[in-house]
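Q: Could you fold this chain for me?
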Amino acid sequence: MNTDLMMSLTNAHGPSGREDEVRSVLYHALNEVADEISFDGLGSIIARLNSQAQGPKVAIIAHMDEVGFLIQHITNDGYLKLFKLGGIDPLIALNSEIEIKTRSGNKYHGIVFTDKPLAHLTMDDLFVDIGASNKAAVVDMGIEIGDSAVFATRTRELNHSGNYIAKSFDDRIGCLLGVELMHACALQKLDCDLYFIGSAQEEVGTKGGKTATEMLRPDIVIVLDVASTKHTPNHHTERRVYGQGPCLVVADKCALANYPLLNYVSDVAQSHSIAVQRDFLAGGGTDNGAATLVGSGIAGLAIILPVKNCHSPYTLVNGNDYKRCLSLLSHTVNGLNPAIVASLYNYGL
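A: Sure. Below is the predicted structure, expressed as structure tokens.
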């Protein structure tokens, strides 16, 4: 794992629609190996590798944006009100430190608080204290309605345990996987024409996953994302166990895995002794839902890493899960040839 790149990606300020810092980090990391880099109309970054290939077109997708906020109102007392971007529980946001970014690029920190009882707390009950005594002081700082904010956590390893804490592993860990995959594949001979898409605005409706895929019209999409583990101290289950390998998503709220592709990736994992899990996301979806509906339909599969405390200031990811997922992706992409892809669309009687 490239921990320096991980920290650059996860510490970047990048809620939905404001992915500029993340896109810049990705551009410089991908430009070292990509044949070409382009962008869709929403700002998704698209890097291409092995452009001379005659084989199938394969797109690996991970979203750049993190959950966050927009400044919705400035009170006369100098407090800020927030509009949430993505699924943030007000109880999780409460008492957190956030980073606010202005139009000019200046950054300020604030503390989220409330003067309401915790029962039935809503986002409208939260305020942000930035140390300003009145509205004029906020304006003098350059903070405007519409400026963005994210959790202020700095990425670090948890007690040298191989587990890492960040505010934005959803889905910067997927972005890191995409970059490291492209670097690894640049040293190999591939049959496929490989793309990595860092999609925009996934947290507010899987938007960039659709628009970027529409530009490419690939033969296969593999979406990388995360979800909170189902195995907790009070709920022992064999589903989505943290530290037991990446999860192949059979179905979620928005998409079904292409069954032959699911089985192909499972077979790749078994043949290379890579621990994987099969999973279902009953309450949500990924870019796989939007991407696979492009054109006449595309074979797709979501692969997720189990994390702890998703959509919070302190999300944890396991380093071994990451390594297994990168190995799985590398072996999967290396085996994708015209015959494999044809088998995914074999609908004849």
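A (continued): Residues 260 and 344 are 6 Å apart (CA to CA).
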